[in-house]
Amino acid sequence: MQTKLTINGVAATHEVSPATLLVELLRDGLSLTGTHIGCDTSQCGACNVLIDGVAVKSCTVLAATLDGAKVTTIEGLAKGDELHPMQAAFKENHGLQCGFCTPGMVMAGLEIVRRHGPNVSAETIAHDLEGNLCRCTGYQNIIAAIGAGAKAMGGKSNA
Amino acid sequence: MREFALERPATLAAATVAFNAGGEAALLAGGHTLLPAMKSRLRMPDTLVDLSQVAGLTGITKEGDLLWIGAMTRHAAVATDATALPALAQLASGIGDPQVRNRGTLGGSVANNDPAADYPAAVLALDGIVETTAGSTKADDFFQGMFATALADGEIITRIGFRIPEKAAYAKFRHPASRYAVVGVFVAKFADGVRVAVTGAGPGVFRWEAAEAALNGTFSVAAVKGLVLDADDLNSDIHASADYRASLAGVMLGRAVAAAV
User: Fold this and answer.
1) Residue B5 distance to chain A (closest CA, Å)
2) What are the protein's UniProt keywords (chain B) (predicted)?
3) What CATH fold (topology level) applies to the domain A85-153?
């Protein structure tokens, strides 16, 4: 089937099978391998992307059901060499160790800013990261990074 | 996932036609239960009928003492927009995680009737009406045990009406990984009586008559102090024994009443 998507600002028609998950189209079809598959059971959040500005788990969405949607992946955040403020905050606060969960954490961070604004508390961030698993950090620096990223974004929308 | 045909009808009539076109069909709402079940091959439909293009299945409207919510309304929207029923909004805000709530739907959850899902407790305690392509069913007749409902094959939930109570609250003990209810208790006080629904504890959502009787006497935490469920009919699994669930139901009941008072 065909599905028209605007992915990171690029509009195109993609040929997919009905069973193609969004994450499979991104990674296997378009080589956008920044979106990771951690669990494939909608628990870990490593595959989070934005669909029309809202964070979802791309391992649990069929690409063919998204016709007309705007998708933003981790690759779509930076402007050239300039990191998105949320990415810069992860770098500045060392909000990662191995980095596997990081793309999903950054997208979850953008979702937190969308829902709670620039002055979100550490407690709210911790609670709203319940759909993202990190097996390295213990989350402290991720929470700090999202708090700093939220402030740096200053209430601006995601991407 | 095994391959299947995908239909994306724009109307309920077309969805029904697509469902009945032959082979095993399944209705796709938010997909956050169905797609994982298809990945693990618990479900292997030949045809998936995506309801996301059908107009008129989302939104929240108040009509008299009923709050109607469209079947395709996502959990996140119920959490923020069901302001006329704060206990329901609070329940919705505790389903899964933020990303799951951005996709999962009320109708999908109710049609699936997972014995540990949150919404069935609200529909039952709030004396709900499940409106479908075939008519309307009261919640008391709709839920029929583990993953079983009054829905016929291919019958599509269009919206659900919740009676707005005087007071209500939901308390659940969440499984720390899945966020499903190990036990969840929804308490609703109406002018004509109290309704208490329990999810997670047994093979399907059910009303707790002893708790209702106690609260019809006095709607207070003291009235239900020490009340526990009979463990005989409850689930025992790796998460909790039946005895533990029986005790937990009493604790959740007390918390729900305390929050509602």
Assistant:
1) 6
2) FAD, Flavoprotein, Oxidoreductase
3) DNA polymerase; domain 1 (1.10.150)
